[in-house]
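To whoever picks this up:

The nightly regression suite flagged Sulfotransferase as changed. Nothing in the input moved, so I suspect the structure step. Input below, exactly as stored in the fixture:
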Amino acid sequence: MLLLLLAFEWNLDWKHLGPPASWASERYCVRKIDGAGGHSSDFGLLGVPWCKSKIPVEWSKSELLFGLYDFLPVYATRPVQHNQWGTRLDHSFGLWFLARRLQPEIIIESGVHRGHSTWILRQAMPNASIITLSPEHPRSHESEGPFYVDAKAFYFTEENFTDFASMDWDQVLGDVVRHRFRVDKAKVLVFFDDHQSHLKRVQQAQQAGFKHLVFDDNYDTGSGDEYSLRQICDQLTTGGGHSCSLSSREAEVRSQRKRAWERAVDMTELCSMSGAWWGIRGEMRDNFDKIKVPISHQDHIENYKLVQSMLQIYWEVPPLASPSLSYQRAYDPARTVGPLLGEDEREVYNRLGLDKLDEWEFSEYIQMAYARLK
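Regenerated output under the current build:
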């Protein structure tokens, strides 16, 4: 199996799974398509907005593939087998891979639900200290099915719940690692799966001194329930920006793909009546869509500049497989980065056993993002 993967090494030397540096000053161009078949050539068809990295990530596509080979047997033993509305295969692997690659000593998890992501993090880092923040304890979801409670984790839930922004992190981290005089926050990984504004969370994390952040629900422009990094970095350069013209080629392509992909966004969803496309129809959403703040295009640009001034690395976990392999029909590949396994890599896909998994395992890809702050 490993030799088979190594045979692809000639094509697995990606040091950055985003667009090439040469795209930095280019606008995207919508290419003509005849259908919406989910082929690898569809990826990035409508342009992929990308927060600019100052430096590339340290891992390659081949390392991701070897990681996937190690991960799949672990994933098969998960206690929450069907994590409805939660983290599934693509993001579970992304979280596991990032934790293993970054080797944090402490992990902070904001948003727990049934405990699936806590279990993933524990498999990746058996000896790390895990701090979980969530209004509800995983056991409160017992009626939904199996849940996971980590015996070694520190739970701030229910009556002990405190939001990430209100935690005294110096005191909490000192309590968690009492044998240390000073906690190195560069060795802390923060995982946000709490449906709060990413702009807010990035600012709060930087103020607290954290550098390594992972965002689970990184919704595309015009969708979701929070102002995401994806939305913030959708600007009039680097693969982003929209005109809202219903007679445009983009409108035609989006309408076509909406018929094929469940979560594809057409122009009526992308744009407000006044032509505001940024965020979600000109609004900055927060707290599970409970807060909706209208912002101007200039506000949106300033938010982008602020985020970029804080970012050192931005990297989106790639989809594990082309829809021509997984047969998923949820996310539209026209707005995602290229898959780890393309349509011409079916043999590897099958040998990894991915063909044995249910289609729904591949249906919750929402551009999980790793952000490293300066």
